[in-house]
User: Which sequence fits this backbone?
């Protein structure tokens, strides 16, 4: 029993003692009257405090604690502390919930909470983007009324959510989603979605790569096997045998070129980034690229070189040489006889550019985005005639990417093409003395 309770019992004892004294000296009825008045006063005080308590606990606003004394002051203080602790606890839960919702909205994967009737309770930003919905306007909407692809409707209605559904959306960007429904509390469900567009593209590219490399190697192998059977089974004169052997040698060199390019690509993908300390002698490299292009052309084209060699390039010499040579050699292969091939190198504060321009037949716009894919060919028969492996531009793309450079392709049917490699300024190394070399046809 606390001191406040003893205080109230003490007041009652004092009132009883005073009433007894009054009754003894004045008269019993006066004593009882005084005692009843004291008890009544104490009762009125208690009822008033109960009224204050009732008003305080039912007040909607954050009203201050009523002023009191004695036992009621202790009661109000305890209630105030409990209420304050509850407010703090609710505040912590509110902040925790807000942080959880923020974290959920920031997830790169789509998350939507659906009730037992498949109505949207909540979703994050990724889910809004994936399903083209908005939480502010679509909360409470049935998800199957908003996502109406037959595959999705069948997946939801089937109720077998152990497997993931791969859903192609009707959007213009060709978005592909991996979707899974996860049972949640109180018959709710979590609708999880993940953007697998790039993964699907990579899968298609791998499948196409296997098919293409098999096709590219099977053709020369078929030719070689056919000639070998002919040489083995028929009696041929030495001249005819020599011709067949030369043809088999050509096909063998073709397969060797394909394998060499595949190994080059594999090396570019797995090797560590090139050291920036190694300096590529641009003047020597460009002269080599032009000479190789002229040798490949064998006088059938006019090859020109314009180069500002005031800056060299930080990077791997063999990789840069391979990229530049592939661009120049492609221009020679696909430009008709008497065509013009222009090679240009320029450097400045914004970086450096290497470009190869030709006046060949040009490339249709629909093919340009896929030119750097392995074995992708605009015209397969013509590509084989020119001796290309179908891997040159893929090598160029990877070699440039390892030097933070990009490849730009411009082409117009009947007028020719321009392939441009752009290097960032931090890859340039100024020479002690500015030397400008300009070479023509």
Assistant:
């Amino acid at each position: 029993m606390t001191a406040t309770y003893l205080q109230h019992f003490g007041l009652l004892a004092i009132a009883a003692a005073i009433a007894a004294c009054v009754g003894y000296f004045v008269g019993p009825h006066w004593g009882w009257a005084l005692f009843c008045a004291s008890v009544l006063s104490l009762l009125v005080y208690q009822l008033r405090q109960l009224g204050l308590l009732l008003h305080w606990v039912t007040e909607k606003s954050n009203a201050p604690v009523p002023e009191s004394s004695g036992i009621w002051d202790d009661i109000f203080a305890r209630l105030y502390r409990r209420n304050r602790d509850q407010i703090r606890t609710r505040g912590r839960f509110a902040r925790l919930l807000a942080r959880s919702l923020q974290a959920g909205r920031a997830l790169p994967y789509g998350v939507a909470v659906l009730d037992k009737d498949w109505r949207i309770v909540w979703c994050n930003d990724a889910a809004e983007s994936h399903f083209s919905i908005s939480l502010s306007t679509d909360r409470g909407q049935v998800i199957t009324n908003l996502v109406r692809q037959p595959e999705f409707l069948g997946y939801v209605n089937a109720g077998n959510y152990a497997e993931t559904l791969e859903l192609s959306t009707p959007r213009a960007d060709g978005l592909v989603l991996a979707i899974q429904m996860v049972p949640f509390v109180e018959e709710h469900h979590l609708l999880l979605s993940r953007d697998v567009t790039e993964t699907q593209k990579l899968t298609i590219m791998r499948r196409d790569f296997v098919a293409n490399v098999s096709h590219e190697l099977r053709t020369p192998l078929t030719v070689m096997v056919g000639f070998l059977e002919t040489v083995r089974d028929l009696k041929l004169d030495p001249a005819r045998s020599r011709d067949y052997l030369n043809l088999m040698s050509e096909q063998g060199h073709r397969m060797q070129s394909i394998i060499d390019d595949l190994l080059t690509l594999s090396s570019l993908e797995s090797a560590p980034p090139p050291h920036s300390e190694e300096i590529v002698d641009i003047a020597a490299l460009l002269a080599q690229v032009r000479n190789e292009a002229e040798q490949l052309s064998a006088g059938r084209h006019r090859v020109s070189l314009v180069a500002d060699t005031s800056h060299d390039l930080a990077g791997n010499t063999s990789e840069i040489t391979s990229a530049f040579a592939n661009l120049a050699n492609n221009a020679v292969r696909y430009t008709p006889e008497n065509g013009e091939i222009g090679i240009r190198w320029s450097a400045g504060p914004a970086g450096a550019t290497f470009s190869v321009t030709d006046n060949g037949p040009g490339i249709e716009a629909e093919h340009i985005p896929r030119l750097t894919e392995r074995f992708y060919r605009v015209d397969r028969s013509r590509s084989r005639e020119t001796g290309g492996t179908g891997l040159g531009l893929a090598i160029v793309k990877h070699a440039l990417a390892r030097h933070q450079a990009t490849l730009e392709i411009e082409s117009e049917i009947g007028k020719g093409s321009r392939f441009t490699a752009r290097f960032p300024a931090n890859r340039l190394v100024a020479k002690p003395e500015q030397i400008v070399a300009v070479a023509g046809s």
About this structure: Residues 434-441 have pLDDT under 50 and may be disordered. The chain has four domains: 3-100, 107-195, 199-270, 279-439. The first helix runs from residue 3 to 25.
